Predict the 3D structure of the following.
Amino acid sequence: MLDIHKLPKQPSVAISFWNVGSLLYYSSALFMLESFFYWSKFKEAYVNEAILLSLFWLGSVLFAFSHIFMVVMDGWSRYQNYKRIKDYLFVHGFTPKIARLYKGSKCQRTAFLVAARELGMQDEVLRYYRRLGIKWYHFVPHFMIKDPFFLFKKYFWSRTFLEKRYEPKFNYRQLRPEISL
């Protein structure tokens, strides 16, 4: 177990939630803007009775609008991963075995890195991911490349959007002893 005297100052839950999913939340805002743009194009095509163009823009609206919810659900799942990872790292320390489980996507790595940073282990995790050849710009999850039919697989839906709620075993803000001067 990690020495509580070496535990860095812990951010609030809101800050941790933001840090884990900020990339996803920015994406959600972009999908909202995209949906609004496509909706205006759809209305324009519909008023002009351009059937094929209307169908194209309606499909675009539905695609972008549905992604808003998918991104929010992905953010929720990554936050559940973060809480689980943080508990594991606190009790067992950094191990490549657990880091390997979360190397698959940028969002999962971010959840792992945020948990590690909050426990003072970020450098170890970054070194490990660098050794694996993972760069900061590797956004596309590995499973999407390996399995082009991932959308039809249960593991994709359960691991990406439907992670079960995880209740942390420790309150890290209360664990850290107050340092007196």
User: Anything to note?
Assistant: The first helix runs from residue 13 to 47.
